[in-house]
Amino acid sequence: DNMGWKTDAAGGNYRVCAVPVANRGTAQGTNMVERFGWTFADGVRLVYQSLEGLSAGRYVFQASAFKDVPNGDIRLFANGSEQAVYAVGGMQPFSVSALVEDGQLAVGLKQGLLNNCYWTAMTDIRLMYYSPLVLLDEALAQAGALDYGTDADGKLAEAVASAQAARENGAATTEARMVAYKELLEAMEAYK
Fold first, then answer.
1. What's the helix, strand, coil split of the chain in %, to 5?
2. Where are the alpha helices (DSSP H) in the chain?
3. 3-state secondary structure of 50
4. Is beta strand 81-85 parallel, antiparallel or unpaired with respect to 13-18?
5. Which of 73, 81, 120, 128 keeps 20 to 30 A from 46, CA to CA?
6. What does each of the 192 residues of the chain score in pLDDT, given as a tens digit?
7. Closest by CA position to 93, among listed 60, 119, 69
8. What is the separation of C-alpha 46 from the centre of its chain, rounded to a whole number of angstroms?
9. All residues at 6 or more sequence positions from 69 whose CB lies less than 8 Å from its CB, including other chains
């Protein structure tokens, strides 16, 4: 058992172990989950966890990670979102976020394209949750700060009103709040 971590890559070394002093970088953790091996297929999940039954909202996955060579392509991922890991030899913090609406989230390290790495690892792993109410508050603040352009077709004003109603209605479902949030983001993007 590797404390719930899985791999889709065959062969090599895959384990939870102590962080070597030489690879600590800025990491605080004493243990890491590592994947060492030879050439893996492009896009393969090297170390990951799959979570189910999550509440809708934004999840931010954070980890201190490294790769063993500069020209390697390792990615921290959360569902379809990715962040390149550019730290070589010593752990550095990285984060990636994903909206979850279906209750499912996979997070971890995956191989990018044409990867030359043989070793990658992560520690200081955290998963943070932002509820639809928090997302609505953030988006409404952003919409209120827009100071350029015009809302000629009224779609931004309509989306703001819908988001405020979803925010203030205590009986609004999580799904309704997520819809209002996404519609407000789309209206702000169109406004730009």
1. 25, 35, 40
2. 132-144, 155-168, 174-191
3. strand
4. unpaired
5. 128
6. 578 899 998 888 889 999 999 999 999 999 999 999 866 778 899 999 999 999 999 999 999 999 999 988 999 999 999 999 999 999 999 999 999 999 999 999 999 887 788 899 999 999 999 999 999 999 999 999 987 777 878 899 999 999 999 999 988 899 999 999 999 999 998 886
7. 60
8. 16
9. 88, 116, 117, 118
Task: Give phi and psi for 113, each to the nearest 5.
Answer: -90, 145
Residues 102, 156: Cα–Cα separation, whole Å: 27
- Looking at this protein, which amino acid is placed at residue 23? N
Q: What is the Cα–Cα distance from 31 to 65, expressed in whole angstroms?
A: 12
* Amino acid occupying residue 140: L
DSSP 8-class letter at 179: H
129, β-bridge pairs:
59
Alpha carbon distance 48, 152 (integer Å)? 46
